[in-house]
Each structure stands twice: as C-alpha cells, then as structure tokens.
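> Could you send the Methyltransferase domain-containing protein prediction when you get a chance?

Sure thing. Input:
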Amino acid sequence: MKSNATGSFPRLRRMIRRAEPWKISGRARQTYIPADEKLAEKIGIAQNDKIIVFAGGAGQWASELSKFADVRYTDISPSMASHAKLNMTRIRTVRVAPAELVPSRERIYDWSFSFEPFQLMDPRHGMAIKVAILRALTNNKGAKLVFGPLLFKKNEESFRKIPDIYGATTRISKTGIMCMEHSGETKENRFTVIDILTNDSARNDAKVDIRIMRLLDREYTQGKRPTIQDIAEKTNIESGTVERSLERLHKINSMRWI
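Output:
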C-alpha cells in the first residue's frame, strides 16, 4: 500500500484540539426551551429509551427528555456541564466529553441526541458532527437531531450523506413543539427533526471504522504511517475489510458539509 493511502481520515485529536468550549457564568439557556407534554411522542422517543446527549449545551432539552427517557448528558465545555449538573437535576448523569467520543461503546444507548449542534458543523472546528453521526450508528436505534428555523434546506440534506455511505436511513420531518418564552408564556414553534436510523450492517461497519480510525489517529500522532497489513494485524481485522473501511473513512473526511 502506498504511504499516503491511509492519510485521509477524521483526525480525532486534531478535531478535539480545534474545539472552542463555551465558557459561561450564571444561568444559561438554549435558544428554545421545550415545555411540551408530548415532546417524546413528537420527536419519536419511546418511554424509557436510553439517550446519550452530545453537545448538550445549557441542558434544557436533555432535562425535558429526562421526563420520558433515561438520559445521559455530555458536553465538551466544563462550565456548560457544571451548569447542567447544578440546574438540570432530572438528568441522570452529566459529564464532560467531546462529541467525537460519544458514545464510547456500541449498543449501550438507543439514541444519540443533540439540539442545534451548529458549532459541530463549523469546518473551523474539524466538522465534529460527522464523527458524532458515525458513532451514533453503533447505537441500538441511531441518532435524533432537532433544529429550529435556522436550519436551511441545504443543511438538512447534508445529514443524509454519512447514513447513505453505511446503508442507514435518514428521515427528516417537521413538527410543532410548545416552548417556554422569555416572558414565561408558552408558544408553539416549528422544528426540524432529523432521524438517522441504523441497522445491523451499518452498525457493524461503523464499529470497524471507529476502531480503525482510532488506531490511525494514534499511529499518525506518533509519526507512523501503517500499511493495510499493519492495520489488519494490529486490529485482527481481515485486510479486505480494512480496505473497505479506509474507503469509507476517506469519503467521510473529504465530505463537504453545506
């Protein structure tokens, strides 16, 4: 294999270093605060689903979902996580973690969830959303992302790209959700719900790709350039499977996100 054949893949350490965790003082709020008794039904969450929230922000969405489901909150920002832990007491666990590393194992959660993770879609920060979606494919069900009216149609279509690589399904729908206004009144707002539905094949391929991506990230950080055979031996994965994995990782890394 040529020395540069494994060079195009998401570089986890580099992406995490580029991230700019928000720093807050006092109380913080997300752009919309849900206050809807039918929230779970409207976005397709079943009773007692296990949810890992990435880029959880101030935590209001994670807190509201905790009324219906088993929710674990994560955010790369220590101050955001502290705010959520102090003020959103319904959430079962709160921890500091970058979206690129959530979830850390397959089939622990039903869904990965995030509300308006725009910062993860910023190319200056390494496009962490791509790795977050890849990891969500290892869940039991997949990912749910919710956006307010700031999400444009062209952005919606970008969310189909990674699931298409893995043969997973993307569904995009609109729904009205009651939210708390600054005045204290409730008002219905329109939201876009993006469902990424995994399957056994997508889950298995994503599991392999994450394993190889982590190995490559570690090897490249140490100045090494492993061959396909090197990767196969270190991961105990068949060479042909490694080649197909590298092709998928290259597609993800070179993918443009509009």
